[in-house]
Amino acid sequence: MSLDASKWIPTHWTFRNSGVAEHFDQHVREQLPWYDLATNAVAHFGWHFIPRGGVVYDIGASTGNIGLALKETLEQRGARFIAIEESREMAARYNGPPKLAIADAATFDYEPFDFAVCFLVLMFLPVDTRATFLRRLESLIKPGGALVVVDKVQMPAGYLGTAFSRLTLQHKLAMGAQPVDILRKELSLAGYQRPLDAALLPGRAELFFQLGEFAGWIVVKPEH
Ligand SMILES: C[S@@+](CC[C@H](N)C(=O)[O-])C[C@H]1O[C@@H](n2cnc3c(N)ncnc32)[C@H](O)[C@@H]1O
Questions:
Q1: Pairwise CA distance, residues 81 & 54, whole Å
Q2: What are phi and psi of 177, to 5 degrees?
Q3: Spatial contact of 84 and 108, defined as CB atoms under 8 Å apart
Q4: Which residues pair with 111 in a beta bridge?
Q5: Is 85's C-beta closer than 6 angstroms to any atom of ligand 1?
Q6: Closest ligand 1 atom, residue 15 Cα
Q7: Domain range for residue 202?
Q8: Whose CA is nearest to atom 27 of ligand 1?
């Protein structure tokens, strides 16, 4: 069912907006029908890669859905969890496990970690900061640990790229989004949401998910 998005979609997309924060959980599932499936895949990897007493980051946590999906593993392993979110409006809606740091993920003072997740966040970081940020994160993965990235990616050229974009459009319509709201949202993202260049990912990143414009990778740090 449509959420009458015309009432709250900002002209220029931002997460520093109480309307966006209020509607986020419903909106993301309307826009991305695979959202819960991919979130569950992240939880599955957490179950495999978070050791007893491990350190775990959820980078760009929004309302905390990744943390919620990891909660059982975090508790069972006695892991230390830090969610990072820069928007106070999103943070006010945070419903995941403690603790939440309201901070810029790009400049956050990370400690070496066992498991970190960038779920739909790199596409919102300034393009010229992404390579450095990814290199820094990779250097902080502990041996045997993992970094998971799920993001919008650059499209193949030509007709296949058109088909990929239309797949997303078709999903949104099928989930009940109104065409005018799909357009409004799409235009509002100009200059803020830019797809990730997958070539920035470390060479050993393994693809675990792709559907049209969106993909997910896991980077595992060798044990030696
Ligand atoms: C699409 S949402 C992420 C969804 C979330 N990871 C989830 O699983 O539901 C993008 C989030 O990243 C946050 N974000 C964007 N840039 C950030 C930054 N530099 N530091 C921290 N958070 C950031 C936004 O405020 C927003 O809440």
A1: 8
A2: -65, 145
A3: yes
A4: none
A5: yes
A6: 25
A7: 1-224
A8: 62
60 CA distance to ligand 1 middle (Å): 3
| Predicted confidence (pLDDT) per residue in 88-105, tens digit | 999 999 999 999 999 999
Q: Is the CB of 125 under 6 A from ligand 1?
A: yes
Contact 82, 36 (CB under 8 A): no
d(CA 199, ligand 1 centre) in Å: 21
With a 6 Å cutoff on the Cβ, whether 15 touches ligand 1 is yes
In the chain, the percentage of residues whose pLDDT exceeds 70 is 99
> What kind and span of H or E run contains 195?
none
Q: Is 119 in the pocket of ligand 1 (CB under 6 A)?
A: yes
Work out the pLDDT band at 7, boundaries 50, 70, 90.
confident
Q: What is the pLDDT of residues 197-217, one digit of tens each?
A: 999 999 999 999 999 999 999
- Helix, strand, coil distribution of the chain in percent, nearest 5: 45, 20, 35
Q: For residues 175 and 28, is the Cβ–Cβ distance under 8 A?
A: no
Q: Decide whether any atom of ligand 1 lies within 6 Å of the 120 Cβ.
A: yes
Instruction: Give me the CATH number covering residue 129.
Output: 3.40.50.150
- For the chain, the domain total comes to 1
Distance 120 CA to ligand 1 centre (A): 7
pTM flag (> 0.70): yes
